[in-house]
UniProtKB/TrEMBL annotation:
Belongs to the extradiol ring-cleavage dioxygenase family. Homotetramer. GO terms for molecular function: catechol 2,3-dioxygenase activity; ferrous iron binding. Residues 7-122, 150-269 form the VOC domain. Its EC number is 1.13.11.2. It comes from the Bacteria. Keywords: Aromatic hydrocarbons catabolism, Dioxygenase, Iron, Metal-binding, Oxidoreductase, Repeat. Signal peptide: none annotated. It is an enzyme of class 1 (oxidoreductase). This is Metapyrocatechase.
Length: 307
């Protein structure tokens, strides 16, 4: 049952060098730089996103993800979910309004896979970049790089994915849209959605807690994904895999790395999910096709390069 979580709202990533990171996320990926706060964190957004920001970059000694935030319907929902998270057994912390510039109070909580998440109800809305909300043009002039439209989802690795499934589905109201089962029928991958999308977050079973695989950004068309591949080669960016298609979710995709070693995906297409849909199931004997539908061969780096 849906419980008021609307969509992914933001992700905070650790980068080793801010100037190099902006060359990746702003100039290559094409996100819009919004501002820098007093702590030196840089805020960015995709051009279609109405909220002030969706990506926060923090310079640190090691790469990875600090947290992902999800926007909920209103403060009443936020209050109720905060109580539900405490009852579930999460360690819960309330972050005051303004700690992220333009964002209301946030409720941060841990998860059985060791990742940090947060929910919030209010964020300043600045509208789509370069496009009016009245009689809007099809797209804004002045976009750069891959012209990423929005932060779409992230893929995370951790040990207790069953516990995290209960957290996201029973407490936060996500649906299990797709899964991978091993030969014993145990779930080794899960794709969860709070919307009609194929997934808003995904988890892969992994011995270590709290690992980050990638942040994903949406492009409009397959032609845009191919153009992204051209830019990756033109800029000599480290390529992981693609362009190709996934079997899981059927998205058309390419993966590459930022200068700090964090993996980025841009993709288009993909399946949709309604709450009455049964989960789509893949089996591990078809894992090659599930991950890379065309090659049908696993890329070891794709499975093991984590931050």
């Amino acid at each position: 049952m849906r419980k008021g979580v609307m969509r992914p709202g933001h992700i905070q990533l650790r980068v080793l060098d801010m100037k190099e990171a902006l060359g990746h996320y702003r100039d290559l990926l094409g996100l819009i730089e919004v501002e820098t706060d007093a702590e030196g964190r840089v805020y960015l957004k995709g051009w279609t996103e109405v909220d002030k920001f969706s990506v926060v970059l923090r310079e640190a000694d090691e790469p990875g993800m600090d947290f992902v935030g999800y926007k909920v319907l209103n403060n009443d929902v936020l209050d109720q979910l905060q109580k539900d998270l405490v009852e579930f057994g999460c360690n819960v912390e309330e972050i005051p309004a303004g700690e992220l510039t333009g964002c209301g109070r946030r409720v941060r909580f841990d998860s059985p896979t060791g990742h940090m998440f947060e929910i919030y109800a209010e964020k300043e809305q600045t509208g789509k970049w370069g496009v009016s909300n009245v009689n809007p043009d099809a797209w804004p002039r002045g976009l750069t790089g891959m012209k990423a439209t929005r932060f779409d989802h992230c893929l995370l690795y951790g040990d207790d994915i069953d516990g995290t499934l209960k957290l996201f589905c029973d407490v936060l109201g996500f649906d299990l849209a797709e899964q991978v089962l091993d030969e014993n029928g145990d779930r080794v991958a899960q794709f969860l959605t709070a919307s009609m999308k194929a997934h808003d977050v995904a988890f892969i079973k992994h011995p270590e807690k709290g690992k980050f695989h990638h942040a994903s950004f949406f492009l409009d068309t397959w032609e845009d994904v191919l153009r992204a591949a051209d830019l990756i080669s033109m800029e000599d960016v480290s390529l992981d895999i693609g362009p190709t298609r996934h079997g899981l979710t059927h998205g058309k995709t390419i993966y590459f790395f930022d200068p700090s070693g964090n993996r980025t995906e841009v993709f288009c297409g993909g399946d949709y999910h309604y709450p009455d849909h049964e989960p789509v199931t893949w089996t591990t004997d078809q894992l090659g096709k599930a991950i890379f539908y065309h090659d049908r061969v696993l890329n070891e780096r794709f499975l093991t390069a984590l931050t």
